[in-house]
TrEMBL record:
Its EC number is 1.5.1.3. Keywords: NADP, One-carbon metabolism, Oxidoreductase. It catalyses: (6S)-5,6,7,8-tetrahydrofolate + NADP(+) = 7,8-dihydrofolate + NADPH + H(+). SUPFAM superfamilies: Dihydrofolate reductase-like. One of its GO terms (cellular component) is cytosol. It comes from Bacteroides coprosuis DSM 18011. GO terms for molecular function: dihydrofolate reductase activity; NADP+ binding. This is Dihydrofolate reductase. Key enzyme in folate metabolism. Catalyzes an essential reaction for de novo glycine and purine synthesis, and for DNA precursor synthesis. Residues 3-163 form the DHFR domain. Pathway: Cofactor biosynthesis; tetrahydrofolate biosynthesis; 5,6,7,8-tetrahydrofolate from 7,8-dihydrofolate: step 1/1. One of its GO terms (biological process) is folic acid metabolic process. The keyword NADP applies. Belongs to the dihydrofolate reductase family.
Length: 164
C-alpha cells in the first residue's frame, strides 16, 4: 500500500467546511498545501473535487471517488471506491487525502501521516468535520506557529502527526 497522508485545515471543533466550501481563507496554508502535494497523488471525494474553482490541481495526479464512474472530470481518474483507487497506486507513491469528511473518516485508520493546519478559531456554521485525532495513536512530531497578520485573520499552526 502507498504511503497515505491526510491533509486538512481544521478549527478548534474539527470543522473543515460549510456548504462545500472551505471555512477560512489562509493564503500561506494554500501555498503549503501546494508545496507538500505537488508531484504526488491526490485522492478526494466528488464534492471536494466539484468545489475546486479551477478543477483538477496541476502537477499532481488527481483521483476522484464517485459512485458514478461514467461522469467525466477533466484531467482526473475516477474510481467508485477507495480500495479501487488505492489499488491503482504504487507502493512507493505518496498519496494525499484531501477530503471531504467521508473520505477522511474512511482513511484515518490506514494513514501514516496527518498534515493538519490547526486554526485558532471556531466557526458558527459548519457541516463537515475532520475525525477526532486520537492522541494515543497519533503523536505530534512538529508544530509551526503562524501568527495572524494582514492576510490571515487568525493564528494557526502547521502540525504534523505520525502514528505511534
Amino acid at each position: 500500500m502507498p504511503k497515505i497522508t491526510l491533509i486538512a485545515a481544521i478549527d478548534r471543533n474539527n470543522a473543515i467546511g460549510y456548504k462545500n466550501q472551505l471555512l477560512y481563507k489562509l493564503p500561506n496554508d494554500l501555498k503549503r498545501f501546494k508545496e507538500l502535494t505537488t508531484g504526488h497523488t491526490l485522492i478526494m471525494g466528488r464534492k471536494t473535487f466539484e468545489s475546486l474553482p479551477k478543477g483538477a490541481l496541476p502537477n499532481r495526479r488527481n483521483i476522484v471517488l464517485s459512485k458514478s464512474v461514467s461522469t467525466p472530470y477533466p484531467k482526473t481518474e475516477v474510481f467508485e471506491s477507495l480500495e479501487k483507487a488505492l489499488a491503482q497506486c504504487s507502493e512507493d507513491e505518496k498519496v494525499f487525502i484531501m477530503g471531504g469528511e467521508k473520505v477522511y473518516h474512511q482513511t484515518l485508520s490506514i494513514a501514516n501521516v496527518l498534515e493538519i493546519t490547526e486554526i485558532d478559531s471556531e466557526v458558527s456554521e459548519a457541516d463537515a468535520f475532520f475525525p477526532e485525532i486520537n492522541k494515543n495513536v497519533w503523536i505530534e512530531k512538529k508544530r509551526i506557529p503562524h501568527p495572524a497578520d494582514d492576510k490571515h485573520a487568525f493564528d494557526f499552526y502547521y502540525v504534523t502527526y505520525m502514528k505511534e
